[in-house]
Design goal:
The protein is of the alpha/beta class and 429 residues long. The protein folds into two domains: 2-173, Flavin prenyltransferase-like (Rossmann fold, 3-Layer(aba) Sandwich), CATH 3.40.50.1950; 184-282 and 292-428, Rossmann fold. It has helices at residues 16-25, 44-51, 67-74, 85-92, 99-106, 119-123, 125-136, 162-173, 209-220, 248-259, 302-319, 339-347, 362-373, 413-428; strands at residues 2-7, 29-34, 77-83, 111-115, 140-141, 145-148, 154-158, 184-190, 194-195, 201-202, 224-230, 240-245, 264-267, 274-276, 296-298, 351-358, 377-382, 393-400, 406-412. An eight-stranded mixed sheet has the order 12-11-8-13-16-17-18-19, with helices on both faces. α4 (85-92) crosses α7, α8 (162-173) packs across α9 (209-220) and α11 (302-319) crosses α12. It is elongated and about 80 Å long. The protein starts with a strand and ends with a helix. Keywords: Decarboxylase, Flavoprotein, FMN, Ligase, Lyase, Magnesium, Metal-binding, Multifunctional enzyme.
Length: 429
């Protein structure tokens, strides 16, 4: 694949060297097209040496090859990392003052922007409008990470980890449509831990790999993603807002809050069914004789709760006022509504996807869960030693409410993720 790596003039330009290395080492042919300002941070010899291709910023170099047209025409992917507010503005308004902006105008392949700038610049209405314009035209604009910026500043605007930008680009190169553009997606991932005492907990083997694959794939298909991660030791997916939780109660609160205005909720996390009825404040010490039994109590069934709230909300949603202001007609939303209130009044997810990990009678147990949980899709997979948990691959059957099951053969977890989104997207239209 022919990749154009555009680099604009921000301090994060040095991180693009790692992104370039990832592309070249995976066999892609990369042409680096920096701006003049980018060369003040990383020089032309570095880009040429790492890419093995000539580097220029000017449309007047090698004119006989018509580079301002040919580079974009021949590309399979254009990724701009970092993308400054200036380059986003020029791209949104169709300006073409240098080789990079000319390339963006002539490219007919997928285009990915990875913005990096100070928080105030990212949040400025002009930048937000430019980002919205680029997304409407079919570009993937990855939301920046939150963290340390230039100097002592901290906030949204940090360039995501180059390895995570690379993962989004690989998924874009898979050729999937931008059928989630503008959609708000909430995904839970990982496994909850229920404290017994300050040291011990009840947990499970979920690594979060499948949930993270769902998040990365959704970002590549244009979605705005909130990832509720329960005890996951993985780097944050580029473009996703990550909310970290530990217990089932924390996960429930985070999913209900983020899901209140979401189009889709995907419950891929392995949520503990039970928790200790009493959490000990001090570490339980070993004594002679048998230990005291630990009494368990049920955790909330978050997936079933989402389905039940949606069923209960349907009549109210049909009669509710569309204007969400205090003093509106019965059923209208007010500024004091909690996430639970919002879901109860019909503003919850349009599509609910559950996951069921089974060790035996996989399809029978899955069909029973689908009926009981009230979700639209239920992804059923067999788990066990070297199966699903902690492995890079997975196989699954996606059960469809009112439809035929869809088999997903064993392969990378991204294949399961794409199969899920392929089924979700039509339900949003």
């Amino acid at each position: 694949m022919k990749v154009v790596l555009g680099v604009s003039g921000g301090i994060a330009a040095y991180k693009a060297c790692e992104l370039l290395r990832l592309f070249t080492e995976s066999g892609h042919e990369v042409r680096v097209v920096p701006t003049r300002e980018a060369l003040r941070f990383v020089g032309e010899p570095t880009w040429a040496a790492l890419s093995g291709n000539p580097v220029t910023t000017d449309v007047w170099d090698d004119v006989h090859e018509v580079p301002h047209v040919r580079i974009g025409q021949r590309a399979d992917l254009v990724v701009v990392a970092p993308a400054t507010a200036d380059v986003l503005a020029k791209a949104a308004h169709g300006l073409a003052g240098d080789l990079l902006t000319n390339t963006l105008l002539t490219a007919r392949c997928p285009v990915v922007f990875a913005p990096a700038m100070h928080t105030e610049m990212w949040q400025h209405p002009a930048t937000r409008a430019n980002v919205a314009t680029l997304r409407e035209r079919g570009s993937v604009v990855i939301d920046p990470a939150v963290g340390r910026l230039t100097g002592a500043d901290t906030g949204p605007g940090r360039l995501p980890d180059p390895a995570e930008i690379f993962q989004v680009c690989l998924r874009v190169l898979r050729g999937r449509p931008l059928d989630l553009a503008g959609r708000r997606v909430v995904i839970s991932a990982g496994g909850t831990r229920e404290a017994i005492d300050p040291v011990r907990y009840i947990g499970n083997r979920s690594s979060g790999l499948q949930g993270y694959a769902l998040a990365r794939t959704a970002v590549a298909r244009g979605a705005q993603v909130t990832l509720v991660a329960a005890n996951v030791a993985l780097p944050d997916p580029a473009g996703a807002t990550v909310v970290r939780v530990e217990s089932a109660e924390e996960l429930r609160a985070a999913v209900l809050s983020a899901g209140a205005d979401a189009d889709v909720v995907v419950m891929a996390a392995a949520v503990a069914d039970f928790r200790p009825a009493v959490r000990q404040d001090l570490k339980i010490k070993k004594t002679d004789g048998e230990p005291e039994p630990i009494r368990l109590t049920k955790n909330p069934d978050i997936l079933a709760e989402l389905g039940e709230r949606r069923r209960a909300a349907a009549p109210m949603a049909r009669s509710a006022s569309p204007v969400a202001v205090a003093g509106s007609a019965p059923g209208a939303l007010t500024s004091s509504d909690t996430p639970e209130d919002v879901l109860a009044q019909g503003s919850g997810p349009r599509v609910i996807v559950g996951f069921a990990a089974e060790t035996h009678d996989v399809l029978a147990n899955g069909q029973a869960k689908l009926a009981r949980k009230g979700c639209d899709l239920l992804v059923v997979n067999q788990v066990g030693e070297n199966l699903a948990f902690g492995t890079p691959d997975n196989a699954a059957t996606v059960l469809v409410a009112g439809g035929e099951p869809v088999e997903v053969p064993r392969g990378p977890k991204e294949d399961v993720a794409d199969a899920v989104w392929d089924l979700v997207a039509p339900r949003l239209t």
